[in-house]
Amino acid sequence: MGIALNTALVVAEAIYGYLGNSTALLADAGHNLSDVLGLVVAWGASIAARRAPSGRFTYGFRASTILAALANAVFLLVATGAIGWEAILRLREPEPVAGITVMVVAGIGILINGFTALLFASGRKDDINIEGAYLHMAADAAVSLGVVVSAALIIWTGWLWLDPVTSLVICATILWSTTSLLRGSIDMSMAAAPKGTDLAAIRALLLARPGVSAIHDLHVWPISTTETALTCHLVMPTGAGDAFLMETTQLLKTTHRIGHTTLQVETHPDNGCALAPDDVV
């Protein structure tokens, strides 16, 4: 529903932004397009997560969500550059703007973005992706409000330069959010520990488990934009049974949201494990 509503809004803003000669409305259309792409990525992640591993893709296609986020960020940077360039040209030669049309379409944008935000409000506390969608939609409602205010001021003052200036402000907003998306997707592509992962706390949890005298070869990385994996070697002189492994896995899941844990138990601290040194991957 969120994708359908925002797609309709993008089309309407693009058409009326062009007909109304408003770069601010076109910029807002570009911003809302980022929402559509973001929601599509989230939807694709939920679909990919259900696909069973096969052949060479032993994790299935979960990592495709990371690649989609990276492609999304690059696309947004290109689109924002084009919108910004047009706004700069318009600053040099301001043109009349259909203020009423811009206000009406952007006002509809406030309603759609606000309603879409409400769709995600109930689940945002339990899912960081839903929380991100909620905050993005709420912010877009505010951006659309800025376009309405800009159009109203143009009608009132006749200052045509307000339209391209507003579009540049919207571009700056898109760039700010896109930079974070680009950095995050690159980090995930490089198998960096997901943002918010407390490696020190994870290490302390494993060392505090009964029978564990040391750990090494600890790795935490994202399988997808919503799933995290962990591998670690545990030195346990007395060994460990299935109950210990299951309990440790559950602890990692409940305290650190790590859903795919693989633990290797070693009973002799001087067994010569080639992965024991910290500088070895």
TrEMBL record:
What superkingdom heads the lineage? Bacteria
| Molecular function, one GO term | zinc ion transmembrane transporter activity
Q: Which cellular components does GO assign to this protein?
A: plasma membrane
Boundaries of every Cation efflux protein transmembrane domain copy: 3-187
The record's section on Pfam families has:
Cation_efflux (PF01545), ZT_dimer (PF16916)
Entry annotated with the keyword Transmembrane: yes
Compartments, as annotated in UniProt: Membrane
Look up and give the membrane topology term. Answer: Multi-pass membrane protein
In which broad location class does this protein mainly occur, judging by the first location in its UniProt entry? membrane
* Domain Cation efflux protein cytoplasmic, first and last residues per copy: 194-267
Its keywords, alphabetically, are:
Ion transport, Membrane, Transmembrane, Transmembrane helix, Transport, Zinc, Zinc transport
Please give the start and end residues of each transmembrane region.
61-85, 97-121, 133-159, 165-182
PANTHER family per UniProt: CATION EFFLUX PROTEIN/ ZINC TRANSPORTER, RE54080P-RELATED
Q: Which family does it belong to?
A: Belongs to the cation diffusion facilitator (CDF) transporter (TC 2.A.4) family. SLC30A subfamily.
Give the protein's recorded name: Cation transporter
Question: What broad taxonomic lineage does this protein's source fall under?
Answer: Bacteria, Pseudomonadati, Pseudomonadota, Alphaproteobacteria, Hyphomicrobiales
